[in-house]
Amino acid sequence: MGKNLKEAVKMLEDSQRRTEEENGKKLISGDIPGPLQGSGQDMVSILQLVQNLMHGDEDEEPQSPRIQNIGEQGHMALLGHSLGAYISTLDKEKLRKLTTRILSDTTLWLCRIFRYENGCAYFHEEEREGLAKICRLAIHSRYEDFVVDGFNVLYNKKPVIYLSAAARPGLGQYLCNQDVAFLEKLIKDDIERGRLPLLLVANAGTAAVGHTDKIGRLKELCEQYGIWLHVEGVNLATLALGYVSSSVLAAAKCDSMTMTPGPWLGLPAVP
Questions:
Q1: Which pairing describes strands 159-163 and 196-203: parallel, antiparallel, or unpaired?
Q2: For all residues of the chain together, what is the average pLDDT?
Q3: 3-state helix, strand, coil in the chain (%, to 5)
Q4: Largest CA distance in the chain
Q5: Where exactly are the structural domains of the chain?
Q6: What does the pLDDT read at residue 173?
Q7: Residue 175 — pLDDT band, cuts 50, 70, 90?
Q8: d(C-alpha 245, C-alpha 232), whole Å
Q9: CATH class of segment(s) 126-261
Q10: Has this prediction a pTM greater than 0.90?
Q11: What is the pLDDT of residues 83-120, one digit of tens each?
């Protein structure tokens, strides 16, 4: 499996696909398969078509970088996907034992590396999917009858989610100011209006300027009002270092956090 993956990636990384620029654009249309043919194609031909499609528009979009050599760690990540597909073919009992062991070990390692005690890992492909999972957990923890009555229980006390002003655009509609005193006023106003403060999403390091919210103070505020505290941001990667700033170290005491080891370590297709 590893040998086949290495050969396939090597073919896709080949930068000598075309030597005649004048004929490049004319060949692009031929690279795209038309209607389903009567006979299939071998793997080499299919990979060649994929390679041509990846590099076919370079003359039109010179700013688009060519595919980079992914290195040994990248090959291991891609091999992991191949192994995952192979493992899925095992019988249910073997699959259950294997996945349980992998999940327990990786959860333990992640918690120890990033100083998060007694955690439970949830792996997801889409970055916002984890936060949606946390929203459901917070709802179940605060609404006792949610399992029985469903979303009807939210009618009397509408849940409120507070987001850091430094959060990613489009993450939510209810934004709170970085000023913690102003946030506390928002919480009190929502309680007086019969709403239920449910979740607060803080930020530990924006990609642009590295801004980190006052997580320690936010944690105290969340404990006071029974709000679930979730933290995300690039500075969470520093929890794996020997020295961590106090502002980021406070995130280790939050209720949940979003970790993105793929971009941090330069690994492709990692959940």
A1: parallel
A2: 78
A3: 50, 10, 40
A4: 72
A5: 76-121, 126-261
A6: 35
A7: very low
A8: 16
A9: alpha beta
A10: no
A11: 888 888 999 999 999 999 999 999 999 999 999 888 99
Which residues lie below 8 Å from residue 74, measured CB to CB, with a gap of 6+? 266, 267, 268
Q: At what angle do helices 180-192 and 215-225 cross, to 10 degrees?
A: 20
Angle between helices 71-87 and 92-113 (to 10 degrees): 150
- Pair type for strands 228-232 and 256-258: parallel
Backbone angles phi, psi at 126, to 5 degrees: -85, 135
H/E stretch holding 48: helix 43-55
Greater confidence (95 vs 71) lies with 95
**At residue 55, does pLDDT exceed 50?**
yes
Residue 234 CB partners (closer than 8 Å, separation 6+):
204, 205, 206, 207, 210, 260, 264
Token pair for 203: 């930020």
Q: Counting beta carbons within 10 angstroms of the beta carbon of residue 145, is it exposed (0 to 12), middle (13 to 18) or buried (19 or more)?
A: exposed
Most confident segment among 49-63, 69-83, 147-161: 69-83
Q: How far apart are the first and last CA of the chain?
A: 21
Contact in structure between 206 and 166 (CB atoms under 8 Å): yes
Encoded tokens for 195: 């709403």
**Angle between helix 2-13 and helix 71-87 axes, rounded to 10 deg:** 130
